[in-house]
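Box 3.1. Reading complex inputs
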Amino acid sequence: MKKNLIYLAGGAMLACGMAACQSSGTGLTFEHQGDSLTLVHVSAPGKYLLLPIQESCGESQVRVETGKADDVTMDIRLAQDSVEYYVPLELPQGGNATVSVRKTPAGAICWTHIQLADTFDTGNTDYYRPVYHHTPLYGWMNDPNGMVYKDGEYHLYFQYNPYGSKWGNMHWGHSVSTDLMHWEHLKPAIARDTLGHIFSGSTVVDKAGTAGYGDSALVALYTSASDKHGQIQCMAYSTDNGRTFTKYEKNPVLTPFDGLKDFRDPKVFWYEPEKKWVMIVSADKEMRFYASHNLKDWEYMSAFGKGYGAQPNQFECPDFVQLPVDGDKNKMKWVMLVNINPGCMFGGSATEYFTGDFDGKEFTCDTKPEVAKWLDYGKDHYAAVCFSNTGERVISIPWMSNWQYANVTPIRQYRGANGLPRELSLYTKDGQTYVAANVVKEAAVLRKDTRTFDPVIRVKDEYEIGGIVPDNDGAYELEMDITPDAGGVAGFDLMNAKGETTKIYLDMKAGRLVMDRTESGLTAFGDKSEPHAKETDDHRKTMSVNYRNDFALGTWAPLSLCEGKTYHLDVFVDKCSIEIFVDGGRIAMTNLVFPTAPYDILRFRAEGGEAKIENLKAYKLGL
Ligand code: FRU
């Protein structure tokens, strides 16, 4: 390391047997036992140790030592050469504590920067933090999970690392909302423990108290993941409306019968015709169904998925919901959501679905194995699952990223955002059943300012509108009806004065809606010396590098999913994302973009004919 131990010692050197000790004079003494172990002795009151982070460093193993068997080790990228930001490590109350740190050299810079504090500043420091999308206050977020509605509150739990803005130390983070738009951040609800990371899963309202924790207890089923125990399904319950969970003392409740390595993300739902709980779990390249009467004892029923859809990829994060076809409640169909990674159509992660029937035991798919249908045609829509207990409404929320570059996006203090909540419905087209995913109607509360334009705009070549919304800070919505000429290309560019542009257009000859982010702003990030996500075993653990061609591309969707010649576009822009919903969600497309200044120019374009733009509206959005 750059500095040596003696030079670093700001306070008195103490004698600690053979170990080198230093005290910073701030209630902290560092006892270095060589380079492999440091004991941090805390001798003054303080709620947190503020730990300095450097994302390119390897993980150190950090544990608050209370002497109990369930002390948990967290993997934290402690700064060795330079400090990028801090994360808080909560200390036991009382003023005296010992924290052990393994694998951080005695000369690392972190030892002079660790501080004892009673507060932790969560004020935003990221330019790209979305204005109206849900993000964690700090730290890393991936999948939404355990989402449930109860007593007027939507609970959004999520894969969360409180100890850095890269994947690791999976907890269930927690936010609540009464309108799906304004989120209150609460403390993590389920913390990593000695059985492993708390991976994705689901929560149900146990109305009849079948698990023995009282009527309407919240019961969460999740995957514990560790090298030691593998991936096993565990249970926890909450009797305080989801604020805190108690883990079931006999966990796990389900292990794979065949020792499968990838066996995770249980989704549980109540199957009314047989009055039983059903669990669907991703099991390598298929989904398995189990049944239970008490949420604790699970019996295998069937499996679906081998050879179906996009193959050969890892199935993850299932959901299984029932919806009326074309709004007809006498014609119900089941929809299986399957999140797949890697190898999806634009690279990396995406969400596909299958429609079909379920007899309480087995799922029968409507379509042939080779048919793949996608819930969203962007590159940043993943791990989408739905809320439990929302009655007839089925509301999904995606994580807005892609495992190819999720760990290296140009964001620091937090990393990871959710896409807007979407209401799912089924429609038929050409004899096939499809899922529409439309932004929920609650998004209307975000509209702060409306700008209207001429009712009809005819675009021959180019038509430019500057200053899309007043005081543009990159958070707005555009609504319009576009009618391109047959065989032409019609659409618009979202641009800033620097020329950074995302192109959105309907290519009538190819029959495609395209969103092209090749020149959208920052398109290459990460450190090229690090291994690429695809080259390592665990896509989550790597410092995945975005090679330019992973990010700088266009995504497209088939216009054949829509009817007619006029297309209604609802476009949501928020600092670093664009979501498009066409014709009530028949096409949804979600992509990250990183313009270095807000897009404030809307330039319509038409080639090979004229385009008609009607009912154009621009809304400034905010919370
Ligand atoms: C999907 C996923 C899940 C897993 C979680 C871990 O993005 O890989 O399968 O539960 O992330 O954070």
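In summary: Residues 142-143, 159, 170, 199-200, 223, 264-265, 316-317, 383, 540 surround beta-D-fructofuranose (CB under 6 Å).
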